[in-house]
Structure formats: C-alpha cells, structure tokens
C-alpha cells in the first residue's frame, strides 16, 4: 500500500486487498493518519465515478486477456 501511495498514478484503481489481513484498508489508513497526525476523510464515489471505475476494470481485464 505504501508503494502505491508514493508511486501510484492519480485516479487509477489498485486492488490491494488481502482476505487474510486482520485489518481493513480503511483501518490501516486511519492508523497511518493517526501516526502522521493528519485528518482522514473517506469519500465514496458517486454514481458517475462508480461507472468510470467499473469501465476501467472491464477495459483492464479485456486488455489482460
């Protein structure tokens, strides 16, 4: 996750989930924010952004096949 935070491309979608993890990504982000003493704001994508994310995922899998 830290690698993507430092080197990721803005507006790109990354899947960094791990089903064996003991903390959620949101919990991990909150821990990092607390350590850095910064406020963390969660924003859910609106309907248009959700469609854009889905379209990018579909395109990615089509290109990968």
Describe it for me?
- The protein is an all-alpha fold and 65 residues long.
- It has one domain.
- It is built from 3 helices and no strands.
- The chain has helices at 2-7, 25-36, 47-64.
- The longest helix is centred in the C-terminal third of the chain and has 18 residues, at 47-64.
- The radius of gyration is 14 Å and the shape is globular.
- The two termini are 25 Å apart.
- The relative contact order is 0.11.
Measure the end-to-end span. 25 Å
Total count of strands: 0
- Helices and strands: which structural class? mainly alpha
How many DSSP helices?
3
Rg result: 14 Å
Low-confidence stretches: none
Helix content: 55-70%
Major beta sheet, specifics? none
């Amino acid at each position: 996750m830290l690698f993507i935070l430092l080197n990721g491309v803005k507006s790109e979608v990354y899947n960094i989930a791990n089903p064996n993890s003991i903390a959620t990504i949101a919990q991990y982000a909150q821990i990092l924010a607390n350590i850095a003493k910064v406020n963390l704001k969660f924003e859910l994508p609106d309907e248009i952004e959700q469609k854009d994310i889905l379209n990018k995922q579909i395109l990615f899998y089509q290109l990968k096949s």
